Amino acid sequence: MKKTTPRLYCLAHPKSTNAERFRSIRTNIRYSRVGGEIRSVLVTSSLPGEGKSTIAANLAAAMAENGRRVLLLDGDLRTPAVHEVFDLPNGSGLTSILVEQARWQDCIYPIQELEGLHVLTSGPISPNPAELLGSTGMKELFAELHNHWDTIVIDASSVLMPFSDALTLARMAEGVLLVVRSGKVLQKHAATAKQLLERNGARLLGAVLNRRSGRRRRYAIGSEELADWVTASGPRKG
Predict the structure, then answer these.
(1) Is 140:27 a contact under the CB 8 Å cutoff?
(2) Each residue's pLDDT tens digit, 180-203
(3) What gap in Å lies between CA 206 and CA 222, rounded to an integer?
(4) Is the pLDDT of residue 56 over 50?
(5) Pairing state of beta strands 108-110 and 117-120?
(6) What is the number of other CB atoms lying within 10 angstroms of the CB of residue 12?
(7) How many CB atoms lie within 10 A of CB 20?
(8) Which of 39, 40, 45, 84 is nearest to 166 (CA)?
(9) Mapping DSSP to helix (H, G, I), strand (E, B) and coil, where does residue 217 land?
């Protein structure tokens, strides 16, 4: 990581309001399951452009900040962005491991600015990402990575795309966060994404509202207002 990007609030702006919001999201996830902690979280959105990669990166940083060993895995093999958020090379990564051209141990990037945080980038674009993500090798790799990290955060493709990548990974994760960008996505799209995730056996932990206010971004999770917005079947008034 060559520089701390302003989008990584816990690193670049640790005392900011947004950094605190990501810590609140971390806490909500931690106590969302009775009898044990959530050890793998998939972050997705209904459509591209809602900010899921930035939110996944900040969530991973907030978890590592709390003393956890955290791996941020870029599972978006079609339009990967995690390497851009952290300013990392992407010549080898997840796809390289799955086609047996690299060992996972050689593809992990430790983030020097935050002890405990590591990144596995997507690797080169593959001609068959759906097959790779649904392969036995992916399931075995995911299980192996769980032996070395306390928590895995996965940045996945958007749900409402003409491929099932996000749904495939959602079945592996213990919980899913749905990113909803205010003013970007229609509520019917968010509701459809939520239904698809649940029908495919994903455990939806909540939705993160990515809201722009002037030049600032604000993040929220799990409010009654947001829950109503995501599940509404008709136009929301007011």
Answers:
(1) no
(2) 887 766 788 888 999 999 999 999
(3) 6
(4) yes
(5) antiparallel
(6) 15
(7) 15
(8) 45
(9) strand
* Amino acid at the residue 23: R
Cβ(109)–Cβ(116) below 8 Å: no
The beta strands (E) that lie in 46-111 are given as 70-74, 108-110
175, 32 contact by CB (below 8 A): yes
Quickly count: other Cβ atoms within 10 Å of residue 197's Cβ.
22
Output DSSP code: residue 236: P
Longest dimension (CA), the chain: 54
So where are the chain's domains? 9-231
Question: Would you tell me the crossing angle of helices 52-65 and 17-30 to the nearest 10 degrees?
Answer: 80
pLDDT in tens, 94-133: 999 999 999 999 999 999 999 999 999 999 999 999 999 9
90's CB contacts (< 8 A; 6+ apart) are 80, 83, 121, 122, 123, 124
Cβ count within 10 A of residue 165? 22
Q: Which CATH class for the 9-231 domain?
A: alpha beta
Order of strands across the sheet that contains 117-120: 108-110, 117-120, 70-74, 151-155, 40-45, 175-181, 204-213, 216-221
Look at residues 165, 161, 81 and name the one whose alpha carbon lies nearest to residue 119: 81
